[in-house]
Amino acid sequence: MKRKKIAFVIAILLVLVSSGIYFYYGFLFKEARNIASEMPDLSISATKLLDDYNSNPQKADALYLNKTIEITGTVTKQTDSVMILENTVFCLFTQKTKNQLLNNKITLKGKCIGYDELFQEVKLDQCTLNKQHN
After folding, report:
1. Interior CA angle at 120 toward 119 and 123, to 5°?
2. CB 93 within 8 A of CB 127
3. Is residue 91 classed as helix, strand or coil in its secondary structure?
4. Do 112 and 128 share a domain, yes or no?
5. Which Pfam families match (predicted)?
6. What is the pLDDT of residues 10-45, one digit of tens each?
7. At what angle do helices 46-55 and 57-64 cross, to 10 degrees?
8. What is the CATH number of the domain that holds 99?
9. Whole domain around residue 93: which residue ranges?
């Protein structure tokens, strides 16, 4: 009888441990998205994106937040890994940008991470340059 209880307790412990491991790797530990390899959910201009956030932030979050978007606009500020389009869209790149694109119209892709009310900017993360317009 004692062996059955021990075997039962060991079986329960194995089930708990294996379900804990499954939960951790299945739900909690997910690899980061590779935005560069994803197709954009939608394409939009930088000014339209900001207009949408200014007119209805909740609706804009539903449309854009955590989605891969392709955005077109003129570069108004540039540093090593940041570009600002139309003075309204903050784009953080995964790598340093080599080209000097100030005052050029570009199209890039990134993940929308929301609207910053303090700076009144829409923020994009993991950006990659798609093309430069002439």
Report:
1. 85
2. yes
3. strand
4. yes
5. tRNA_anti-like (PF12869)
6. 878 777 777 666 666 665 655 677 888 889 999 999
7. 130
8. 2.40.50.140
9. 35-132
